[in-house]
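seq/struct pair 1
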Amino acid sequence: YMLASYPSSKTGPSWFFFNLLAATMLLVVSARNGLLFLVAWEVMSLASFFLVLTDHEHDSVRRAGWVYLAAMHLGTASLLVLFLLLGRESGTLDFDRFLCQPGLAGALFVLAIAGFGTKAGFIPLHVWLPEAHPAAPSHVSAVMSGVMIKTGIYGLLRTITFLPQLPAWCGWMLLSVGVVSGILGVLFALAQHDLKRLLAYHSVENIGIIALGLGVGLLGLAYHIPVMAFLGLAGAMLHVLNHALFKSLLFL
């Protein structure tokens, strides 16, 4: 019934890009080479961009699409620099052969926060979320909010595995990002009258909760407290699954 309700001119392109988005999300989390990862990341962003523009006849939808595309490419620029620096240090773009000098780890972590945090929706990199979700069809918003933004969390965690032990300030930085995103996400959500914008800001809040757990985990690693590291990282991963399930259902 949902398919039949779409105009025939939109159904074909919409479902092509929907399947392309699903395929590239799978490729992002299975890539083991920086070049392949970046290509899959870019195609994933483009596929979701065209899905946001499904109802492109409306000015607000087109504006939301361009805001989303600009934000994604700013994030990708940070990731490009990240992988170029890792490749220069290692002489290869294969993930299992990445090397990094301890003095460079903090700068690479900040680049990862900027690049992957844009996709995840950390404040203040969240600007595309409240624009794109009201513009996109609900089934697209369900996948983007429930699954796609979690590729930002995956990318951040994957990058941490490339780096030597990070200094404690990296954990405090991620913890601060989580606290700010969690609190402001709730406050912005309470002010919304459009339900999909409310859910978008609610995603910002929940991504903040996930970042909070990751920050606690990094602090546990930095201060050599295994229980703290385990509880922080495990709590973050649990909420990744939790949010993927309930946010997708709410949009649907």
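seq/struct pair 2
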Amino acid sequence: MDVYGELIFNQNQHNELERLNHITTAFDSITKEHITQLNLPSNSRCLDIGSGTGSIASWLSVHSQQRNFEVMALDRDGQFLPKQASAHNNFTVLKSDISKAHSLGEFDLIHARLVLIHLRDRSEVLEKLVSWLKPGGWIILSEFIDTSTTKPRPSAYSKTMKTMWEVLYKTIGTDCNWGNSLPDNFNALGLKKLGNSLHYPPLSSGSPISAFWCLTWMQMKHHLLTTGGLHIDTYTQAIHNLNAGKVADLSPGLITCWGQR
């Protein structure tokens, strides 16, 4: 069974760090704003899941120095994390697959961005994460939500985006519709003080999210053209239009939901 980071998006690929840095630039300010508004207490234990480049875990470590936060970054690969962790005495790295991880204790904050959407057992993982919250602890999750694939007149961009989601579903189990269910799932799990927001980054020439999608599709080219059956001309046009700022579509947005145990 293939999972994220093995068949697709392996951290050893030459442009994976660049790709992750673009998504960090596109969304970190939104994530930081949402975490800040939770007003976490001093001495909080924080768990950042699927940390990638470690930007959010590192920010939590610095942001919380006067409040003595303990920050743990969990990632199934973790290749990009040790350098970040070495700069902070309250930042530890755990190389683990969240689907297989056992209890790590209780946390005041659990954060994951663009992680559970790629897991086949996402519902079970969500229940596990909620069980790891301290009473009064917060969970904040962000996932993609896509409306570009429903256009009545599909563009090269929307055809390529739709094919990408289909390929990811076939290969690793990604469900691009799961983010829509986060508010209901949080409510069903008994979380309180629920909130959610939606952010659409601009698909302009040179924007971080445009660069992210270009690199994503470049990594997936073989899968898009073979597994997905996308025509090479459509693929080439989509990449060109993104780079040139000629896409009249929305990028998948970032839906963020939070709740307190």
